[in-house]
Amino acid sequence: MNINATLFAQVVVFLILAWFTMRFVWPPLISAIDERAKKIADGLAAADKGKAQLEAANKRSNQALSEAREEGAKRIADAEKRAQVVATEIKQAAEGEAARIIANAKAEADQQTRYAREVLRGEVAGLVVKGAEQILRREIDANAHAKLLAQLEAEL
Fold first, then answer.
1. Tens of pLDDT, residues 44-58
2. Which of 25, 55, 72, 115 matches a 20 to 30 Å C-alpha distance to 7?
3. Distance between CA atoms of residues 143 and 145, nearest Å
4. Which residues form a coiled coil (predicted)?
5. In the chain, what are the domain boundaries?
6. Cβ pair 122, 128 in contact under 8 A
7. Is the Cβ–Cβ distance between 107 and 120 less than 8 Å?
């Protein structure tokens, strides 16, 4: 056998095999590789998109959390203000009630004072009349008058 003929036959077989592979085997392999590359690219794009969405969601949740904290602080401040207003209203109402009670007590004390004065006037008038009767019944005597006036003074 001649090495040149064998080499030439091997080259012909190799070229036929290369043509067959390029024509029938290579296209399905390339399409499978392209499909796989596309899936990988889509997966990476989806991962990037998911990462971006996660960052956006984190930002939104942080913003919502800060808004909730601000709202809570605002509500607490409003509640404290309202509590102060209510406390002031209660204090004013209590002061008004105290003033009304004091005014009623003063009016009642004035009324009782007037009543006591009227009673005393009546008693004094009665004592004066009684003293005048006694003075008129007795004879006119300066010592007796002084004694009666001292007695009336003691009774008053």
1. 999 999 999 999 999
2. 25
3. 5
4. 51-82
5. 3-155
6. no
7. no
